[in-house]
Design brief:
- The protein has helices spanning 19-27, 47-58, 73-81, 102-116, 142-145, 155-160, 173-176, 189-200, 229-237, 240-259, 265-275, 282-291, 299-311; strands at 6-12, 34-40, 61-65, 88-93, 97-98, 122-131, 137-139, 169-172, 202-214.
- With 326 residues, it is of the alpha/beta class.
- Strands 1, 2, 3, 4, 5, 6, 7, 8 and 9 form a 9-stranded mixed β-sheet that branches.
- Helix 2 links the parallel strand 2 and strand 3.
- Helix 10 packs across helix 13 and helix 12 packs antiparallel against helix 13.
- The two termini are 23 Å apart.
């Protein structure tokens, strides 16, 4: 394959039920110069057999990395990134269905934007169609379904809320080489990559849908209708919200530790202030959030976020000194 090819990174775990639909949708892509790199995360069902059959019969370039270790999706996807050498990289979930134009459409945008931004680190992502386990449409727009605004792509915005879905994105080699592949302190791989892109490159979004995003009870992460009574209670009452905000602060600490040498003075100051938020008094916390525009999407999220910030204590600092961007 030439250097313009795309690497598709697929992490699997007990995916026998939906994996055939995904693989069929990859075969149906209008863009053909892709390589599929798969890491199985310790499946105990027929996943490996399905993957081996696909590799033997498809005629596509397929690499399967088998492992008994269950790393979870974040670490598994970051591990996969170490095996990628293509100019463009995409991430793939085992239970989705890609629309036939997905690779070609996102690749065209990425190449055009690279010219516009002089080959800077680049992330392009799209909206998704939300479906149920039978692939029947629940919502024509994941962003509307989740009350997500893709225009919010600045560093301060992405430090507190991710709006980039991993299975909908494509990144260029410049960005891929900047991604630290240690998962220490990282909440999720797509969120981590989005923060890097916001700080050191460009994030481009398109309202076009490129994927059928399947929802079922076994999803690790998924879409849930945002404006529901249950969701409101979860956001405003559940104590785990405080823990989730602490994790964003820990993630900011890790990011600052690993990438401070790549950041400008203003970015270092912004991240440092957010990372030190639990150490200042409540009034200074609130003033910082409003003055530096640390907001989330939607009133409910912001009320929950503000309450969590008021009640947080200083998080445990977790630093991985060995892992550095390439």
């Amino acid at each position: 394959m030439d250097k313009a090819a795309v690497d598709i990174l697929l992490s699997t775990f007990n995916g026998e039920k939906y994996l055939p639909d995904l693989l069929q949708s990859l075969e149906a892509q209008t863009f053909r110069e892709w390589k599929l790199i798969i890491r199985d995360d310790g499946s105990t069902d027929e996943t490996i057999s399905i993957l081996q059959k696909f590799k033997n019969n498809s005629g596509r370039s397929v690499e399967i990395i088998e492992s008994d270790a269950n790393l979870g999706p974040c670490k598994s996807f970051l591990t996969l990134l170490k095996y990628s050498e293509a100019n463009y990289v995409m991430f793939c979930d085992q239970d989705d269905v890609w629309l036939p134009h997905k690779i070609q459409f996102l690749l065209n945008i990425a190449k055009n934007e690279e010219l516009k931004y002089n080959n800077k680190p680049l992330l392009v992502h799209s909206d998704l169609i939300v479906t149920d386990r039978n692939n029947s449409i629940i919502s024509q727009s994941f962003w509307k379904y989740q009350n997500i605004n893709p225009k919010r792509k600045k560093l301060n915005e992405l430090l507190v809320q991710n709006n980039v879905t991993g299975c909908s994105l494509i990144i260029n080699r410049k960005l891929a080489d900047l991604v630290c592949t240690s998962d220490i302190g990282i909440i999720m791989h797509d969120w981590w990559i989005a923060i890097i892109a916001a700080a050191l490159g460009e994030i481009i979004y398109t309202n076009n849908k490129t994927i059928m995003y399947r929802q079922h009870s076994n999803n690790d992460t998924g879409a849930h209708l945002f404006f529901s009574i249950k969701h409101m209670k979860t956001k405003l009452i559940n104590r785990s919200l405080i823990s989730s905000v602490i994790r964003t602060i820990e993630q900011a600490q890790i990011f600052l530790h690993l990438y401070s040498g790549f950041l400008n003075k203003q970015q270092v100051e912004l991240i440092s202030q957010y990372a030190k938020l639990p150490k200042v008094n409540i009034f200074k916390r609130i003033l910082f959030l409003f003055s530096r525009k640390f907001y989330k999407d939607g009133l409910i999220r912001n009320i929950g976020f503000l309450l969590a910030v008021i009640f947080i204590n200083s998080p445990r600092r977790r630093i991985q000194s060995e892992a550095k961007p390439r």
